[in-house]
Amino acid sequence: MVRHFLDIYRLEAADLRAILDDAHARKQARKGWPQGRADADAPAKDRVLAMIFEKNSTRTRFSFDAAIRQLGGQGIIANAADMQLGRGEPIEDTARVLSRMVDAVMIRANDHEDVERFARVSSVPVVNALTDRSHPCQILADLLTIEEHLGPIAGKTVAWVGDGNNVCHSFMHAAAKFGFKLRVACPAEYHPDLRDLEKGGTWVYLTSDPQEAVTGADVVVTDTWVSMGDQDYEARLAAFEPYAVDQALMDQANDGAVFLHCLPAHRGEEVTDDVIDGPQSLVIDEAENRIHAQKAVLAWCFGG
């Protein structure tokens, strides 16, 4: 059976825990190594990963390329606009063809349904590297970062402040699987999709008050207020202004609380300079950990 990594809620909690533990182990095992050296076990030796991008990317592109190399494999990067996909070729045809040419496919897509359609006919693993509905790889990197600094995520309290977007959805999926409390604070008109809220179950609490969400939290997370493709820039800025993460808001969290942001950040909008560049911020560790988390995802997809 082909192992796809499309959404956190689709996987068993034990599999997700094993992936995260593997990410920890792989990172520790290569401390001090040059980035281009393959891991000792090289689980992707002789394997090729196709990386398809419909959206611009910095961290996803570099981290997946580094990940497949460190696993001992090779990568092929293509923008959808440079492929026949950009000229209207059916997704299913592309999936069937690439299944004969590579060992796994990573897709950063506009429409979540496109990734699901691709995976339905693909005979090789498909990894969701971001869609309009979810961003599961980012959340595994976030959990890896939290555990490095605060210990096991189970029992912790995470506060999400801002847009109820794709990253927020994946955080809600993860709360139920890893056993942490997630408080989501956002304006009513930008709340997360209720289908994804249900997947978080009783582990997720929704509020419109950022103070309520952050008070006593171990982790504070935000994201840009205007994502690629959003057309309502001015309306969003007005709605989200009370949700900016500044030091006064961070001070409501627990002593030792940390700050996360998946980047790129708009300083002065969703977060102030003193927070994102301050001692509580782990955003650079978080970005680096995309490599290690995605290595563990790929190793799992390959049967590890």
Q: What's the overall average pLDDT, rounded?
A: 96
The low-pLDDT segments are: none
Q: Hey, roughly how much beta strand do the residues contain?
A: 5-15%
How are strands sequenced across the largest beta sheet?
7-6-5-8-9
What share of residues is helical?
40-55%
Alpha-beta classification:
alpha/beta
Tell me the series of helices and strands, N- to C-terminal.
Answer: HEHEHEHEHEHEHEHEHHEHH
Largest sheet: 5 strands, parallel
DSSP strand count: 9
Query: What Rg, in angstroms, do the CA atoms define?
Result: 19 Å
- Give the CA-based shape: globular
- Cα-to-Cα separation, first versus last residue: 13 Å
Helix tally? Answer: 12
Task: Please tag this protein with its features.
304 residues; alpha/beta; globular
Give a written overview of the molecule.
By secondary structure, the chain is α/β, with parallel strands linked by helices. 40% of the residues lie in helices and 14% in strands. It is built from twelve helices and nine strands. The protein has helices at residues 13-29, 59-70, 91-99, 112-121, 136-150, 166-178, 194-200, 210-214, 233-240, 247-250, 273-276, 283-301; strands spanning 48-53, 74-79, 104-108, 126-130, 157-161, 181-185, 204-207, 219-222, 258-261. It has a five-stranded parallel sheet. The chain has a four-stranded parallel sheet with strand order 2-1-3-4, sandwiched between helices. Strand 1, helix 2 (59-70) and strand 2 (74-79) form a beta-alpha-beta unit. Helix 1 (13-29) packs across helix 12 and helix 2 crosses helix 12. The protein is globular, with a radius of gyration of 19 Å. The two termini are 13 Å apart. The model has no long low-confidence stretch (mean pLDDT 96).
